[in-house]
Structures are given as structure tokens and as C-alpha cells.
Amino acid sequence: QAKRAGRNRYRFFLPSMNEGALERLGMEEDLRHALERGEFELHFQLKVDTTSGNMTGAEVLLRWRRPSRGLVPPAEFIPIAEETGLIVDIGAWVLEQACRKVVEWGERLPAGFRLGVNLSMRQLQGDIDEAMRDALAATGADPARIELELTESMLMEDTERAIGLMDRLSAQGVQLALDDFGTGYSSLYYLKRFPIHRLKIDRSFVSELPHDRSCAAIVQATIALARSLGLEVIAEGVETTDQRDFLRDAGCPECQGYLFGSPVPAEAFAALLEGRRQQIGAS
Ligand code: C2E
Ligand code: MG
Ligand code: MG
Ligand code: MG
């Protein structure tokens, strides 16, 4: 009996189990210095007009170049950044960098181009409207070029406060999109009250198009809902031409996904903009 308990206790401290906790702790420690050490970078993924394929905007996607570990995707470090509160400073940095890119790329950007920036729950609990104002003031970026991507679950926490924040952000001239739409639990009542410009249909519905009948119905209904509420709509995670064709026929004006391009570093995205300009110049 004692032997078994002893063995169990031993098992609890198995090195393999410690490794996970240590790795988590190491990541947290490294994350604390990542910003000052300049280890974050932004990648950019195209958004396109479903029918013409023309560029309508891009989404900023954060990456962490962790020394000796390579490029870390947000799913691995954003949760830790959220828990520790580090996301507030990281998020402010992302906002300012995004604004800098808008200024830097200037007239290479097509008319109506929007750069989408993801926000986290923690940022919305803080003074995100001030962070936005600071980023715009520091860079001189045109607020109409910035679109903030929020999720339903972020907005359902303290809805009245969130609506106030969204109103103040909207008043600054930035656009607001509801990301991963359909996966959260916002009511239609709130949807009407949120001062948002756009719904972003979640990848989980798009990936089952066109064969899954429920996903097809949900996507069509979302497009109709957006229309009747006077909102724009975009589909994320578009990977195949069949999906694109379905979305086009369903009247979804805008798409984003690997079919049109993966997220790429700033230099590669700038080259893409340059290529587009040369194309226009040649035609
Ligand atoms: P999200 O905002 O829904 O971003 C879309 C994710 O889907 C991105 O993953 C993107 O690379 C990926 N994706 C794009 N097209 C396709 C496709 O055709 N197929 C598939 N399978 N995936 C596609 P990523 O870059 O790993 O980002 C994951 C999430 O991390 C984002 O989801 C967003 O919630 C969060 N995130 C990214 N950057 C930031 C940031 O700067 N701040 C905050 N707070 N969150 C961020
Ligand atoms: Mg997003
Ligand atoms: Mg999304
Ligand atoms: Mg998503």
C-alpha cells in the first residue's frame, strides 16, 4: 500500500511532467522581455474582393521570433500574454506598428484598403480607445485605414462598457469587425446595438463549404443578416475555389484565406503592393 502511494507520489514528479510546467514558465519569462528585445513581428494576409480578386485590405497577424525556438504562432503565446497582462503593451505595440505600415505604404495602398488588427479581451478591459488614439497621433495614420477585429465573447463580458468603447473607437474613424462570427454567443439584440461595420464569418463554417448543408445555410443566413442590418461581411479561411465560388454566388463581397495567400512578412507584403502598382501602371 505504502509502496504504491510512494510510487504514485514519485510519478507526480516525473521529469516529463515537470517539463511542461517548466516550459510554460520559461515561455512566460522570455515573453516578459520579448517586446524590449524586439522579438515580435507582424505578418500580413490579404483580403480580396470575391468577384474580382482585387486587394481590399489585409489582416495583421502577430508572430514571436523566440531565440533558438523560431517563429511562435499566436495560439502558443497569446493566452500567456493575456493571463500575465503582457498583452496590453504588446497590443499597443501592434497597433502602433500597424499604423506605421499604413503610413509607410501610403499611396501604394489601393483606395478603401483597411489593415485589420486583432484585439484581445484584456485590451478591451483597458483603455483601448486611448491606445488607439496614441497610435494614430504618434504615426499620423489615416484612421479609416484601420479596422479592429473583436470577437463576440469579448463583447459579452461587460457589454455596456464594450459598447461605450466601441462608440469612442468608431468616433475616431476606425472601423470595427466582429471576428470569428457565429462561434460566440452574442444575441441579435446586441448585434443591432454594436457600432460595428463588418461581420467576419468564421473559418469553421467556410471550411465545410460547399458540401455541408448546415454550414452552407449558416453562411447564407449570415450574409443575409449582415445585409439587412446594413453591415459588410467577409469570409475567413477560404482555401478552395469551390468555397470562393459558393461565397461569391451567395453574395459575400470579400474573402480571406490561403487560396489568396498565407500571412507574409512586411517586406513580402510590400513587394505584393509594388507588384500590384506595376500591374496597374502597365495596363
Ligand atoms: P484570427 O483573427 O481568426 O486570424 C485568422 C487565423 O487563421 C490566422 O492564424 C491565420 O493565419 C489563419 N488562416 C488564414 N487563412 C487561413 C486558411 O485559409 N486556412 C486556415 N486553416 N487558416 C487560415 P494565426 O496567425 O495563427 O492567428 C491565430 C489567432 O491569434 C487569430 O485568429 C487571432 O485571434 C490571434 N491573433 C493574431 N494576431 C494577434 C494580435 O496581434 N493580437 C491579438 N490579441 N490576437 C492575435
Ligand atoms: Mg482576426
Ligand atoms: Mg478570425
Ligand atoms: Mg478565426
Features:
283 residues, alpha/beta, eight-stranded mixed barrel, 13 helices, 53% helix, binds ligand C2E, binds magnesium ion, EAL domain-containing protein
Structure description:
By secondary structure, this protein is an alpha/beta fold. Helix content is 53%, strand content 19%. The chain contains 13 helices and ten strands. An eight-stranded mixed β-barrel has the order 1-2-4-5-6-7-8-9, surrounded by four helices. Helix 2 crosses helix 3, helix 4 packs parallel to helix 6 and helix 6 runs parallel beside helix 8. Bound molecules: ligand C2E and magnesium ion (3 copies). The site of one magnesium ion has 4 residues, from strand 6.
